[in-house]
Amino acid sequence: MLLAPLLGIVALAASALAAPADQITPNVSKWSATRDDLLARDAACAASDRARNAASHHKECSGSAVADLTQVDALRTQMLDAADHALSGGELDRRDVRRLRRLAAKIRHLPARQTGKTAGRYHAKAAALGRACRLLSSEAER
What we know:
The chain is an all-alpha fold. Helices cover 70% and strands 0% of the residues. The protein contains 6 helices and no strands. The chain has helices at 3-17, 36-57, 62-88, 94-105, 116-126, 129-141. Helix 2 packs antiparallel against helix 3 (62-88), helix 2 crosses helix 5 and helix 2 (36-57) packs antiparallel against helix 6. The longest helix is centred in the middle third of the chain and has 27 residues, at 62-88. The mean pLDDT is 82.
């Protein structure tokens, strides 16, 4: 019984401090990158690191290496998409984007049969995205 009046006082005080309803913005908003060249760099570096780690441990952790296949592929795709946006926004030049595409093409598609051995091969190729990471890192420093 004593709790109800106390809750009423707290609710009244909280409502006095609250902003008017027309000043409240919803919590959901669309996120977009402000620097697509940096997003491409981060995706390339993350894919390279993940692939290099999975390639070096695929024998003792084959399940983890297989699980990393889709993550590396998603990061590769994100890198290419962000690079295309950076090209259209003038943050990267055509020559660098063409070079990124050539590096990404060395990986191609995910293996049809996903085993520890095929994952190790894929990740060994995907570690080449380290060159894409270095290329984009040098671009960001300019």
